[in-house]
Amino acid sequence: MNQLQPVRGTHDLIGETARRHAHVVETARRIAATYGYEEWATPIFEDTRVFSRTLGDTSDVVTKEMYTFEDRGGDSLTLRPEGTAAICRALVTNGLTQTLPQRVFYQGPMFRYERPQKGRFRQFHQIGAELLGTAEPLLDAETIAMGYAILKELGLGDAVTLEINTLGDPESRAAWREALVAYFREHRDALSEESQNRLEANPLRILDSKSAQDRALLDDAPAFANYLNDESRRFWDALRRGLDMFGVAFVENPRIVRGLDYYSHTAFEFVTDKLGAQGTVLAGGRYEGLVAQMGGPVTPAIGWAGGIERLALLLDAPPEVKAGIAVVSTGGETMPAAVGVVQALRNAGLKAELELRGSLKKRMERIAKSGASYVVLLGDEELQRGNAQLRDLKLRAQREVPIADVPRLLADEV
Ligand code: ATP
Ligand code: MG
């Protein structure tokens, strides 16, 4: 039989790749906890409507990227392409819409049928945060500051730039949209074919177009800044003041519209020039209708998601594997004592392994190669005295110590 391969666009997390991945997750989880976020986990697959209702009929994710299938019972299910809609569904189905605000952290795999390339996969992983039930621009700034704190803690503070934009409220967007459509209609023939279709379905998406033809037209397109109503302008000003208060630097980028349809007011991306075309590492924005679409009350919220694979690629050095302690039984009768020692070390929170196979020489060679810092040797003679030999592999020094003291002695040193 041919050797089976992982499915295109998926990958195994093993060795250094796994360590980088875990480091991103653990760092994000730790920082998010300091901001009062609690971790939720929702199912990997949902009723297809959780996503089709919310992401918008014209978003790329819904029209082209979803892994949707009918299960054996005939229900239409979808492997989650993103986390936000599922968190909103969970807020409603767990009866939490009256217990707001909720600060939710999540992490895990997402699935999108995209063309695989560096930093772009079909199964990828995200860390994410949602602050549900607040409409304060200062808390948008705080949510963004938390994202930045995670990036800084990962050592990426200098590698990323925060770009922000406002998408205004629905009224402002409607006014701008009208002006945009009028402008694009006038220049219809100059638009790419894809954007000619977008013109009817979702003209805002044209702003996100990668086609050179479309981009040329954008320079003279009506600017959203001129269509913001008072309320939207107030929000936008307060967001930028808030970011100043939190000490997070930003640049304004009017092109940020975000790929999903549900955003309003705040939209932002942390970008890097170190990953080629896949430069966005953490992105999000404010939304309002999502919880209502799940059958709950209208609930203002702000959130973001970060791509773990992209963040892991950016990490300078892979997190190190902690050095361990090897335990070796060298006597005929000392195995029970060796098992006792290795378990006592583990109970003390230390990494320890029994080294069992081969001659003593072979075992010591293997231990040296493993990068262990200490070896505990249990021989018949020492055991009679209640002792073991403790060898420091770095200093190449050995001394006899009471077995009962081994965990305490090593806890101080390792
Ligand atoms: P992009 O413009 O790169 O397609 P997006 O707007 O579709 O991103 P979001 O839905 O906002 O991305 O997801 C948040 C983050 O998740 C992205 O900034 C990126 O880091 C990561 N991400 C999104 N899609 C993928 C993918 N297919 N493979 C790896 N990471 C991804
Ligand atoms: Mg995308």
From TrEMBL:
Keywords: Aminoacyl-tRNA synthetase, ATP-binding, Cytoplasm, Ligase, Nucleotide-binding, Protein biosynthesis. InterPro entries: aa-tRNA-synth_II, aa-tRNA-synth_II/BPL/LPL, Anticodon-bd, Anticodon-bd_dom_sf, His-tRNA-ligase, HisRS-like_core, HisRS/HisZ, HisRS_anticodon. One of its GO terms (biological process) is histidyl-tRNA aminoacylation. Homodimer. Belongs to the class-II aminoacyl-tRNA synthetase family. It catalyses: tRNA(His) + L-histidine + ATP = L-histidyl-tRNA(His) + AMP + diphosphate + H(+). One of its GO terms (cellular component) is cytoplasm. The keyword ATP-binding applies. GO terms for molecular function: ATP binding; histidine-tRNA ligase activity. Gene3D superfamilies: Anticodon-binding domain, Bira Bifunctional Protein, Domain 2. It comes from the Bacteria. It comes from Kozakia baliensis. This is Histidine--tRNA ligase. It is found in: Cytoplasm. The keyword Transferase does not apply.
